[in-house]
Amino acid sequence: MTETTSGPARSSRAKGGGKAAAAAGKGGGLRIERVHTTPGVHPYDEVVWERRDVVMTNWRDGSINFEQRGVEFPDFWTVNAVNIVTSKYFRGAVDTPQRETGLKQLIDRVVQSYRAAGEKHGYFASPADAEIFDHELTYALLHQIFSFNSPVWFNVGTAQPQQVSACFILSVDDSMESILDWYKEEGMIFKGGSGAGLNLSRIRSSKELLSSGGNASGPVSFMRGADASAGTIKSGGATRRAAKMVVLDVDHPDIEAFIETKVKEEEKIRALRDAGFDMDLGGDDITSVQYQNANNSVRVNDEFMKAVESGSKFGLRARMTGEVIEEVEAKELFRKMAEAAWACADPGIQYDDTINRWHTCPESGRINASNPCSEYMHLDNSSCNLASLNLMKFLDDDGQGHQRFDAERFAKVVELVITAMDISICFADFPTQKIGETTRAFRQLGIGYANLGALLMATGHAYDSDGGRALAGAITSLMTSTSYRRSAELAAIVGPYDGYARNADAHKRVMKQHADANAVAPRTDDLDTPVWAAATEAWQDVVRLGEKNGFRNAQASVIAPTGTIGLAMSCDTTGLEPDLALVKFKKLVGGGSMQIVNNTVPQALKRLGYQPEQVEAIVAHIADHGHVIDAPGLKAEHYEVFDCAMGERSISPMGHVRMMAAIQPWVSGALSKTVNMPASAVVEDVEEIYFEAWKMGVKALAIYRENSKVGQPLSAKKKEEKPAEAVAPAVVEKVVEYRPVRKRLPKGRPGITTSFTVGGAEGYMTANSYPDDGLGEVFLKMSKQGSTLAGMMDAFSIAVSVGMQYGVPLETYVSKFTNMRFEPAGLTDDPDVRMAQSIVDYIFRRLALDFLPFETRSALGIHSAPERQRHLDTGSYEQSVEEVEMDVEGLAQSAPRQPEAPKPPLAVAPAPPAAVPAPKQAHTSAELIEIQLGINADAPLCFSCGTKMQRAGSCYICEGCGSTSGCS
């Protein structure tokens, strides 16, 4: 991204640190200093604006699911970011005067609301400070330095309720009235597109008696009703799964039934699938299975974990009296948790004592639950609004391998964002009265970040390394300390949160815990040491100012999945996740996309000391192979820098846990993250992760073992060639001469003339055949006569025609020339080939459709629109065999095709009725990696656009349209 404000000028304006910027003015409000902006110049006037057309289609049937033309965005915004922001965040009905038409309107709608509320409630020392706040916030949003969570963009500045929170925690008591209230409150939150979590441990177990003398139903029974409600609301029109978290304490008498709920349902899914039912995620028959709309977590305490460690018994307690009604072997119960998670990824685990040791408000109640993605943990009936910073925006790189993380500017932006987030609570609406009262009384905030994985790679740090963990910890510590410092400064101006007086001692104790952890954290290199120093100074200020002023906010930070907003900020990685893969898709203006090596890779290589020629060779190797193994000139000790979440070199499960432990001491809440495990992992590996995470001080985590759930599989490996007897013979004329003989066409020959448009370039193709069938020549004419392109197309068509007359099969040309990418490329006017990567790519796809038999085209992954629709309608194996190879007109960009002889067509064989066809087209980076590496993914398909989603923390995100299955 390019910025019109120069680096040196911006740096000089950022000097002064957090203290100067936060100083209270004479009027009692904040004095706001400029960081990125220039006096007298609006941020909008410093960038180049351009008009874009946003057209988003469903890859399954080609239908347009969103279209808005002529939207205005800065020229440096990526196509994907423009598409997502336009389709998700612009308000007003499309094609009406009320519809927003550009980024300026969107940012102004939000920023002006924040500024007005800040002025109204006395946050600023003067109108001039309010204007600087306005400009700085605008600049940071405009340049994708940070983003508020999605509800802010949806609701702020509109006529509808201005809900700003994405995360909610509910509560339920042991009464039917409370249980029914739970159903209602949860349903209202789902209806608004958000998610909620709660702890069911107050509900008496099925082993206890009701006041009437009968047996209680138990919480697992009531979970069925809540799950059905969530599924109904989703199917009633929502575009994503209802997001919910259900927690049960480990000492609840029904804990074993809770642990086994999803395991049993997974077995049911497999049985139904084998019987021929559609049990894919989002399939027609999956709704018959229970407990599929929630993430489940067991809340364990230190007593239980120590019992596991010592091999002793553990007591399960009655909910009404607290007495032990049953004793179990702690190790056996722990084993059952691990077995269930190994089998179906649920339940996750939450460490109750660890969570509550870092609780700032214990006098107001315990922390019992979390939001669906596990990052927000605070009081029952509360909410948290989120915002995340793009860490790559703070990496100063001179292009020669000299880098630094701009801690000073980072702290200034954190202060700005925290101020804005606190202002939002002044005008925010909430889904229930109880949530509104609690949130206004405790003012929980959730600042976080995205792009950590990209930052670590760009700075030459392996994700699973001491240096990588030190830099991540330093940034996290600086972020949270700066947030609490600003919170203390705000308390002096607009007062501490209402619950502070009662919890002052506990809050200050937790601040001291953060500061002490910061003091003993290891420093490793020239990148993290200055950041640690800035964090140390900030924590000293926190302790000093907190003692004097108190704090405005009971909570400051969480690390959220940053699904939609991460894409809107053009981040390579979400939340604290490592990079998914080294090769990804990049969408292009005008349609289409291209496969690229991540921009962070060259930066990392320069940081590691490689010369430009070496960098170029290594990047070329990655483009061809998707990994760094055996890259020319790359030292083996540097391989780990490029380890990703997926791929030939993937990060070990404990590497994920170690990173969580490295940043948890400086996060107010928790971390949304799933620990990825290979399919070969065993139950003992799960036990080790759950146990070591407790030892390391992690608050919560979940594991996901590849292929552990039944879902829409995606086979990444190309089908192996059939035995010779199973292969249909290719229709190729045999030539017995040692040298090829040219077979010329007769004077009169049948032909087809096709007009076409590829990426705006118009042309005509005439394809002539032999009388006994078989293509013999091709003539290509471009609309601009005399141009270089037209001349090259003439020469190219003559060369191809001569080759075919000498006996080169058409399928050989098709296999070689499809997937070639160069401009012009993009959308076409051909319904069978909606997108082409070049004119040559289009030509040979069209020739294949016109002249090759179905079986041959099927082996090459080329199909007509009716054939694709027929496959979608019937779902039969005979139709899905045509998708064995990757279809590039639906495939944004396939893996590089190796120069090998064309594969013979595959024979069509009937498959067992239980087989469910899987798409062999890649539409996201996740699908590309799966196709390359042979990983069967069971992530759901996006309800909006049909693209397979990928994990983002504990949730899923669609790279195509930005839809998420949880917080964003």
UniProtKB/TrEMBL annotation:
| Domain Ribonucleotide reductase large subunit C-terminal: residue ranges | 165-704
Enzyme superclass (EC): oxidoreductase
Catalysis performed (reactions): a 2'-deoxyribonucleoside 5'-diphosphate + [thioredoxin]-disulfide + H2O = a ribonucleoside 5'-diphosphate + [thioredoxin]-dithiol
All residue ranges annotated as the TSCPD domain in the record: 749-849
Name its co-factor(s): adenosylcob(III)alamin
- Identify the residues that the record assigns to the Ribonucleotide reductase class II vitamin B12-dependent N-terminal domain, covering every copy: 54-144
Superkingdom, taxonomy of origin: Bacteria
Compositionally biased residues, Gly residues: 15-30
- Tell me, which GO biological process terms does this entry list? DNA biosynthetic process
Q: Name one GO molecular function term.
A: cobalamin binding
Q: Where is the composition biased (Pro residues)?
A: 899-916
Q: Where is this region: Disordered?
A: 1-34, 888-921
Q: What is its EC number?
A: 1.17.4.1
Q: Which UniProt keywords apply?
A: Cobalamin, Cobalt, Disulfide bond, DNA synthesis, Nucleotide-binding, Oxidoreductase
InterPro entries referenced in this protein's UniProt entry, alphabetically = RdRp_reductase_class-2 (IPR050862), RNR_2_N (IPR013678), RNR_lg_C (IPR000788), RNR_NrdJ/NrdZ (IPR013344), TSCPD_dom (IPR024434)
Pfam families found in the cross-reference section: Ribonuc_red_2_N, Ribonuc_red_lgC, TSCPD
Q: Which family does it belong to?
A: Belongs to the ribonucleoside diphosphate reductase class-2 family.
PANTHER family, A to Z: RIBONUCLEOSIDE-DIPHOSPHATE REDUCTASE, VITAMIN B12-DEPENDENT RIBONUCLEOTIDE REDUCTASE
The task this protein performs is described as: Catalyzes the reduction of ribonucleotides to deoxyribonucleotides. May function to provide a pool of deoxyribonucleotide precursors for DNA repair during oxygen limitation and/or for immediate growth after restoration of oxygen.
Protein name, entry field: Vitamin B12-dependent ribonucleotide reductase
Q: Which organism is it from?
A: Actinacidiphila oryziradicis
